[in-house]
Each structure stands twice: as structure tokens, then as C-alpha cells.
Amino acid sequence: RYGITKKTFEKYQPNNMKIEDDLSFYGLLDELAESNINDTLRYKVVNYLEMFNDEVKEIMKGVLIKDLELGISATTVNKVWPKLIPGFSLQLAARFENVELHKDEEIFVTEKFDGIRCVCISIIFQ
User: Fold this and answer.
1) Mean pLDDT across the stretch 11-23?
2) What does the alpha-carbon distance between residue 46 and residue 13 come to, in Å, rounded to a whole number?
3) Mean pLDDT score across all residues of the chain
4) How far is Cα 22 from Cα 97, in angstroms, rounded to an integer?
5) pTM
6) Residues 65, 6: contact at Cβ < 8 Å?
7) Which DSSP category does 31 fall into?
8) CA distances from 76 to 41, 66, 68, 72 (A)
9) How far is 123 from 56, CA to CA, in rounded Å?
10) Cα 3 to chain center, whole Å?
11) 99 vs 45, residue with greater confidence
């Protein structure tokens, strides 16, 4: 966590703070990760982002506030880097009464109520 939120960019406006010429975005992220967030760091972030065009600035903001929308799903990411994002799939439309259970087998049950799906995970001990 970097301690930067959407409100940071509303409250703190660029103030022409001098930013080191060799500071990279990764360097800024490292500094935020290793430091206690304070007003000086918040101003450093907003002033650093001012060095970039709007498109790059929005990407950086997305990284900082951990809300970077890429328009791809976990399935797509896992096709490129297998098992990078853990997941599981549900077998829908199978009646529980028709499932053969085995000792110590994990089962996943879903219940759908008014369009809201709940996933329950249980282990059957016999």
C-alpha cells in the first residue's frame, strides 16, 4: 500500500516542488512503500505526475491507488502467465443429489438468490 487515494489528487495540487531529475516511477513507488505517508510525499507524488501527459498520468494514478483498469480478465492473464491469478470454476446446473461424494473431498456449492450468487466451500468428513 502506498497511502495514496483518489482524495490525494483532489486535495493536493501541484506546487512546483523540485523533483530529482533521476527519480523513476519505480523509485517513487519504492519510496512510498518504505516510508510513512506524509504531506511532503503526497506533494511529491502530485508534482512528479505533472511531468507526464494526461494518459500516462492516469495510468500512474491507477497504479498508485491500486485501481488500474486494464480491460482484461484473470482468465486472459492466466493464458499468458499460467496460474498467476488463483481461481476456480463452478460447475453449474448439477443437482447436489446426483453428485457422488468421496471421503475428505472438497466440494463447492453455490446458491443463487435474487441474482446474487453465494459460494460455500466445505470439506466432507465421513
Assistant:
1) 92
2) 7
3) 84
4) 65
5) 0.56
6) yes
7) H
8) 35, 19, 16, 6
9) 47
10) 14
11) 45
One-letter amino acid of 100: E
- pLDDT per position as a tens digit, 80-109: 998 888 876 655 555 667 777 788 877 766
Buried b (16+ CB within 10 A) or exposed e, 15-41: eeeebeeeeeeeebbeebeeeeeeeeb
Cell (9 digits) for 40: 511532503
**In angstroms, rounded to a whole number, what is the distance separating the alpha carbons of residues 46 and 14?**
6
105-126 pLDDT, tens digit per residue, is 777 666 667 777 666 666 676 6
Write the DSSP assignment of 59-102 as a string of letters: HHHHHHTT----S--HHHHHHHSTTSS-------S--GGGPPP-
